[in-house]
Amino acid sequence: MIHCAIRSLRVPYGFTLCNRFLSPVLPQTRLLSDTVHKSKLLQLYSTTRQLRKPLVSPKWSTTSRITATSSLQLAHCRLFHTSQPRKAIPPLVWLILRPFANLAAVLFGRIFRKAWKKLPQEKRDKIILRLKRNRSKVLGAAGALTFGIFLYVLAHLEEAPYSKRKRFILFSRQDMRNLCEQAEQEILSTSASKVLPHRHPLSKTIVRVMAQIMESNHQAIIDSGVTSWNIYVLDEPEISNAMVLPNGTVFVFSGIADTCSSDDQLGAILAHEVAHVLLNHQAETLSKEHLSSFIFLFIITAIWAVLPDFAAFLSHIFASQTSQIFISLPFSRLMESEADAVGLNLAAKACLDVREASVFWAKMALREELGCEEAPMEILSSHPSHESRQKAIDELIPDALKLRESCKCKKLSPADPRMKFGLHKLRLKEAESKGCLSCKSIFSHYDI
Ligand SMILES: [Zn+2]
């Protein structure tokens, strides 16, 4: 299996891991309680690696464990809850059907227009007259369809954890996990040679920070139902990014080492990715896409039924881009902001310095400001601008600091890293005005 052949890193946290290896070592309740120490987990993790056994048992059910552990109360910081999984059409079926449905809508609209044109004027007038006479029935049918869609949406509404906003979810977490297993294999089949070994210093750092986040937020991790978290660090120095799949597989690109100047900044990025999984954002995005695609089918059909081919083609593109700008992208930005907010709390509970999250986005914003990176228009972007993210995080930091304090973390240095970065920024701007700015220096360590 590719999963075993490549050099993957497995975060020492997961039900199966506990079930198979840790239970004999520690009592179960103790194992999943607050008292488990990170070093113990890491020690046990290295033991499991030596055993070279798969950490995931597909036959092992998590249901009983979730029930058994859900009563364990954390002293503080229990923020997340998840809804029960529901039966739904697998997302893969939707993904396959969608392009065909779009094509069918175009063809149907076009065939209707051609057939209409071929009809003698007398017959067309008759049909129009009949429709006018039965106006109430036509409107009733349209109303029934709209009401049906409304009821369908209503039946699939659920409350998002943490933000408590109502959202439309069509797919269960399990559906999403099944879907992304395939995506994971595809990514790995093309990037297997780029996966850094677990002995690599960057891999070690990322696993250590991730373990800290996992351990400190274990109840949220349990609630998410993700039983195994994998990290792949890909040797891509030009890419400074990370991404996550709904099954808890995190891909981190090695360029992140240049942009994050501390564990706290790295932790902010990783916590953001974990937050996407806890919030089940992938299922929400896919559900919304399917709903909007379904509604869009009616619009496409109407466009191709009324307009001549070229005009219909242009209108189709225009409608598609408009829905992208006014529906999909704002929705994506909302998800990102939510993941930032929840990620900040995860980082706070992991005793990271949450003020560094603001510094990270300030650096990214400065990079754009100084012309080291192109700044896309926010309205055309799937993510909020770096500046918007920094401002939003700054607003959340006081609460995150209180949360951190309530988790009995070590006191933070009174020297606010945001102030330090402010001075660094002034120096960089001065260097820019003298024409001797190096873009790399934006991310360099900024001790004063
Ligand atoms: Zn994100």
TrEMBL record:
Transmembrane stretches, start-end: 138-157, 294-319
One term under GO cellular component: mitochondrial inner membrane
UniProt entry tagged with the keyword Nuclease: no
Keyword Metal-binding tagged: yes
Coiled coil (UniProt feature): none
GO MF terms, alphabetically ordered: metal ion binding; metalloendopeptidase activity
Annotated GO biological process: mitochondrial protein processing; protein quality control for misfolded or incompletely synthesized proteins
Highest taxon of the lineage: Eukaryota
Recorded family membership: Belongs to the peptidase M48 family.
Protein name: Metalloendopeptidase OMA1, mitochondrial
Organism of provenance: Frankliniella occidentalis
